[in-house]
Amino acid sequence: SLDISPNLQQFFTGDSSVSLRCAGDGQTADGWTVKRTRGEATEDCGETGSDPSCVLDLSVPLGGVFWCETSSGQRSDNVSITVLDKGLILEIPALPVKAGCDVTLRCRLRSGDITAAFFFIDKHRLGSGPELVLRQVRQSDEGSYWCSTDRFGKSPHSFLSVKDPPLPQTITASPPLGSAITDPAGSPPSSSTPPLHSCMSVLRLLCHLLVICPYCVCSVLLVLMCCRRNSGNQPAVSMETRQPAELDDVTTEQDF
User: Fold this and answer.
1) Is the pLDDT of residue 191 over 50?
2) pLDDT in tens, 126-164
3) Are 149 and 116 in contact (CB under 8 A)?
4) What is the C-alpha separation between 94 and 25, in angstroms, rounded?
5) Considering only CA atoms, which of 102, 104, 101 is closest in space to residue 127?
6) Cα torsion angle, 47, 76, 161, 61, sign
7) How far apart are CA 144 and CA 15, in angstroms?
8) pTM, entire model
9) Residue 86 in contact with residue 110, Cβ under 8 Å?
10) What is the Cα–Cα distance from 84 to 164, expressed in whole angstroms?
11) I need a labelling partner for 53 at 20 to 30 A (CA). Which of 92, 95, 126, 187 fits?
12) Do 128 and 145 form a contact (C-beta atoms < 8 A)?
């Protein structure tokens, strides 16, 4: 890829120089050359093979499109750099930004930053102020950005590129104990070992039975005892013998 320092797309003449180099995994990539276009012509910006880098002179308002290329024709993504001697420029990253990161855009005059500017993407206005912060950018934030003011006009357009971060490597975990392993044909092999969750279910059922059975037996015994007690306490039948009424009124008479 093409590495740019400082990582910007727009500059004023007289700014510090811009360094461009071909890099891979953070290291200088030998065998690559920084190429550029000037109008319709394409030329080398660095020394082929020996020093794959280029220092862009900002003394004149001359930019172009830059990329890295090998002798076999392999090439990196293009980066457009604009150099102005007056007007407005937009400070925007030249290299692709990772999705999920914050990106700050600034509108600048040669004399310094602008305190009241309007920021746009394509034809849509995004906001105003001294800067614009794009929170957690994603692919939908890609587009052509520019800024403007009522007094100094507008800046050139620059494209913001967003790339997805690399996916994390997934580690294949071993199958849990007692689980069936599928063979290449797609059918799981037979196994005489019962699953672990089945054993736990049987043990749980036995525990419930041990708790419930004594309770049921005690309840039945209590009911039987209550029934026996109720049957033994029936009230006795009272038998009262009374003499006939005729016997109470008998009068004994004797003759003397």
Assistant:
1) no
2) 999 989 999 999 999 999 999 999 889 999 999 999 988
3) yes
4) 18
5) 104
6) positive
7) 23
8) 0.61
9) yes
10) 32
11) 92
12) no
